[in-house]
Write a structure and sequence with these properties.
Blueprint (H helix, E strand, L loop, with lengths): L13 H22 L18 H21 L4 H14 L1 H9 L10 H8 L1 H13 L1 H7 L2
Helix pairs in contact: 1-2, 1-6, 3-6, 4-5
């Protein structure tokens, strides 16, 4: 007999599946860009306080984004824990967006303080997207 450690998640809606797959595709694309054509611009988002070379941080986060993106697409039966992990990853990289804003570093068309400041508000939307698209939001609400 298998003991369940968490309550089952409700079946996802079509919109949730589309959101999950779209987020997975976006993260796959972003991860690939970390390792190829956009490697240098991502250095602008690595806080100086991180005690590793910016190129290492960009490469590791790129590999993580590829793994997360692929998991979101290919492992729908594990969508809730993957969604929670995706949300955690998006929260973990948020200091890079803050650092880019504070230090006024231009990259990815974020070439003014107003644009860099506006970008800060996108990250919570990505976190909500991950939680909604994977059903993790519903799971968190119903786990009592």
């Amino acid at each position: 007999m298998t003991r369940q450690l968490s309550p089952p998640s409700p079946p996802p809606s079509t919109l949730q599946n589309v959101a999950r797959i779209a987020l997975g595709a976006m993260l796959l694309s972003t991860g690939i860009s970390h390792l190829t054509f956009a490697k240098r611009p991502f250095h602008a988002q690595v806080p100086a306080s991180i005690p590793l070379p910016a190129s290492t941080v960009v490469e590791v986060s790129g590999v993580a984004e590829i793994a997360i993106g692929a998991s979101l697409i290919a492992l729908p039966r594990h969508r809730v824990p993957i969604g929670l992990g995706t949300a955690a990853f998006l929260v973990a990289v948020f200091p890079g967006n803050i650092s880019q804003y504070i230090h006024g570093l231009s990259a990815f068309g974020l070439d003014t303080d107003a644009k860099r400041f506006g970008r800060l508000f996108a990250q919570p939307l990505f976190v909500a997207w991950a939680l909604y698209g994977t059903g993790a939001w519903d799971w968190l609400r119903n786990r009592r």
